[in-house]
């Protein structure tokens, strides 16, 4: 039997008279790397926003880890184990890398305004140290130890993308939503990011739902691919089968023959 961690059933989302998503359904298996592709305006980010709780669809249901989360707020979904990165960087530019990542641990902390004043005499100090150890492990994993005390806004674009991934990992997620994690990166940075995504999937057991335009990356690291077209699901399946689909190949990838398709794979 399939071990499904995410079930999206007949989701429809509209903004006024504009339909962003129409009756979209799919399932993501636990431990998979699931990629969503399609042209600009296809509804990819709207789908991630619906899963994370940022948008509230007018129709359909979303189940995460056997629980209906359709009407839960984003912070409640984060508590259940849904992490998120954004297409446009959402870091606190004036804060250090370490502090940015620690923000991702905030919802896991039991310390509050009542115990805060008793920091040195309460378990709060031990709790913070434990969270810092977890953060340091993530920093080492993503090879950003050399910038851990740097101000996030001063870093290169590729490093800032890595810090945002680190903050999402700090949520201790079961599922992580990545919105174009390699956009704007050079070839070396893309190769590094692809390796980190594979490692967090395989070593940490985190399920990944990813939007990505680089078809080489999609083919290399995805277990399953879904194509959206004007807010509707066009096709989903194994990467090779999706890329071989005539409509996908010509309309979305600009490929005319089998030789070009092999070059992408």
TrEMBL record:
GO terms for cellular component: plasma membrane. CDD domains: ABC_Mj1267_LivG_branched. Keywords: ATP-binding, Nucleotide-binding, Transport. It holds the Pfam family ABC_tran. One of its GO terms (molecular function) is ATP hydrolysis activity. Residues 6-255 form the ABC transporter domain. PANTHER family: ABC TRANSPORTER ATP-BINDING PROTEIN, CONSERVED COMPONENT OF ABC TRANSPORTER FOR NATURAL AMINO ACIDS-RELATED. This is ATP-binding cassette domain-containing protein. It comes from Shewanella insulae.
